[in-house]
Amino acid sequence: MVSIKPSHLDLWVGAKMIEEFIGIEKLLFNIVFFLKKYLKTTSWVTNIAINPNTGLILCQISKESFFKFYLLYINNLSVCLFLLAIIGRLLDCLETKIFKIMATLGVNIDHIANVRQARKTVEPDPVQFAFLAELGGADSITVHLREDRRHIQDRDVFLLKETIKTKLNLEMAATPEMLEIAKKIIPDYVTLVPEKREEVTTEGGLDVKSNVQYLKNFVGNLKDSNIEVSAFIDPLSDQINYSKEIGFNFIELHTGKYAELSGSKQYKELQRIIESTHLANDLGLIVNAGHGLNYYNVKKIASINNMNELNIGHSIVARALAIGLEKSVREMKSLIKSN
Ligand code: PXP
């Protein structure tokens, strides 16, 4: 057992030097690595989770023991010092809010394909719009390949896999056909959603509780192909517990009800989503959320502690039309005038 208490300034300078040498991203990666490896069970780090998209850590530290460094079971002095240095830097960053851990944004581009399919033509092309979404800062691109192919087509998903620079989240129903497609494409992750032919959009979450054995095999099959798997579920404790039992890596909490409600009812639904996030985190599940989120209601969901990613489609595409239409009309008008 080793217990070391170097001065705070030494730690800070050491970490700063390391940060300058390897860059903040690698520094954070190392923090994650060391914290996970050595400190998961110590009392002052009360909760550790990793955002797999950004490599940032979500780390809850009890205030009272903020600057206590008791390291157990580490007998390599240089590892200890390095660890202490980067933790010191992390604590400073947290204290001075140099970086804030925030949810990432997954942009759902199904509605681009909806416009194309209205004419069964080649434009607008969701692949091109995925590129623009990435330029705007999207952290991942989400598409739902539906059984009836009403919007996104197989070709879109294959091309997106080839072209996007961020991550591909393939939403799909848990059917044998979709399993085969996912295994060919190997998206970064798959989100399993319920699907009914007659629905306008995904209604309600996946009932994982009633399909445990089937989903265990399905999820296992995807994981064997190195695909991480998420379950789009309602914020209910039994659905969360069963998601863990089935072996999902992530859950995506359905925010549709929250988006529809207002006033005290919306507040109550928000509390349900917050409690669900905490429960899932305690079980080691990474939590995403989505459906119905827009420019008015997103903030409260985004501020939930340990929220990993928000998947948003309709409101972003609607806003793109609103802020882009005037310019596109102007361009057409000037073409007509120039003749
Ligand atoms: N997450 C899931 C699982 C969805 O099915 C959808 C809708 O396709 C979204 C997020 C995005 O919802 P919205 O288009 O309302 O932002």
Kindly describe this structure.
By secondary structure, the protein is of the alpha/beta class. The chain folds into 2 domains: 86 residues, no CATH class; 234 residues, TIM Barrel (Alpha-Beta Barrel), CATH 3.20.20. Helix content is 49%, strand content 17%. The chain contains 13 helices and 12 strands. The strands form 3 sheets. An 8-stranded parallel barrel has the order 5-6-7-8-9-10-11-12, surrounded by 6 helices. A two-stranded antiparallel ribbon has the order 1-4. The protein has a two-stranded antiparallel ribbon with strand order 2-3. Helix 1 packs across helix 2, helix 1 crosses helix 3 and helix 5 packs parallel to helix 6. The protein is globular, with a radius of gyration of 23 Å. Bound molecules: pyridoxine-5'-phosphate. The site of pyridoxine-5'-phosphate (PXP) has 19 residues, from strand 12 and helix 13. The site of pyridoxine-5'-phosphate has 19 residues, from strand 12 and helix 13.
